[in-house]
Amino acid sequence: MEFTSRTGAIPYDQRREEIDEEREEKGEMPITDEEFLTHVYDPDDPAVKDLQEKMKNARSSQDDSTDELWPTDQPPSPRTQMEIFRKKDIVVTMQARPPKKGVIILHPQDTVGELIGAHEVARWTSLPKMDSHASVALPDQIYGMMSTILDEVRQMVRSLPIREVKQSVLDQELRNLATAALPEPNQQSLHSHYIRTAGGLLPLILKDNDKVIVEDEVLSEKAMVVRMAAKVDKAVEVDRTMDDDEDMEAEKYPLA
């Protein structure tokens, strides 16, 4: 119970529908999740304020173009515009507070897939960019595990003891998560999809937990020059040794 509801037994969907009907009569857009928080939770609650701030930041960084969600040469219809509005709003909520058990806060009756569709789920988990005609190459089993993957990656990142994490360590941790989540021999083919999806979530989760990725070995320009010079010296030394050996051989076996 991170938040205390103020709506009693009224379902969120019903409360949202009532508010949206009032807004529609006034010619206004539907209520956003950020605004809806103050209708169902205590707006003075620090946890609610923190979540609203995260939503605000996510919304400000979101691309205003609709090409990604609805690529078309024609302007979207009012209904399509409304769908775009709702999907973008849900994405903001997902970025501010990742779903748990496939359910997004303020949308407890529907799964992520039911709300924004499998195609958009694949986009927002940072899978490779697809054009409007491409099909989603995400196996159903991985798609069904989306919320689980989010939770497992988040827990893994939080368990890391230091702020600066080596890329090799993260790669191994993702492989470990994939093996634990898909232990059966017939699930081996799904490992790469799991790792790919989990890896796409890493940057945001690392940022939320104030952690950064560092290279396993970062050499300064000076250190690289010193290393290269050492290699050259070693090569010269080996070359001299070979010359000395040849001189000794010449003395042992002089030409007739």
UniProtKB/TrEMBL annotation:
<feature type="compositionally biased region" description="Basic and acidic residues">
    <location>
        <begin position="13"/>
        <end position="28"/>
    </location>
</feature>
<protein>
    <submittedName>
        <fullName>Uncharacterized protein</fullName>
    </submittedName>
</protein>
<feature type="region of interest" description="Disordered">
    <location>
        <begin position="1"/>
        <end position="33"/>
    </location>
</feature>
<feature type="region of interest" description="Disordered">
    <location>
        <begin position="53"/>
        <end position="80"/>
    </location>
</feature>
